[in-house]
Design brief:
Layout (H helix, E strand, L loop, with lengths): L2 E4 L5 E4 L1 H10 L7 H9 L3 E4 L5 E7 L6 E9 L2 E10 L5
Length: 93
């Protein structure tokens, strides 16, 4: 585990080395954004149910105007882990 935070519901969410490696290799523009990723989970501007059971999306506007950060978290019980994170060009509806 590289990092951990609590989501707005008080559930522990971790970022594992394998998932951080995936984010850094697939979304290089986020390679220096671990703090922003963890902050998006802790204090999201938007939350959405994910596509899979036990999945939730946390979204925050990045410092670059018009660019959003989406963090995908999978939960089992009261604990979750970050699956991936990626930038979006628009605010989700």
């Amino acid at each position: 585990m590289l990092a951990a935070t609590l989501d707005p519901d008080g559930r522990r969410v971790t970022l594992r080395l394998a998932n951080w490696s995936h984010i850094r290799s697939e979304h290089r523009e986020l390679s220096r954004s671990m703090r922003e990723i963890m902050a998006a989970v802790r204090e999201p501007e938007l939350r959405r149910p994910g596509r899979e059971p036990g999945e939730e999306w946390f979204l925050a506007e990045l410092r670059r105007p018009g660019l959003w950060l989406q963090v995908v978290v999978h939960y089992e019980g009261d604990e979750g882990w970050i699956v991936t994170a990626f930038p979006r060009r628009s605010r989700p509806k």
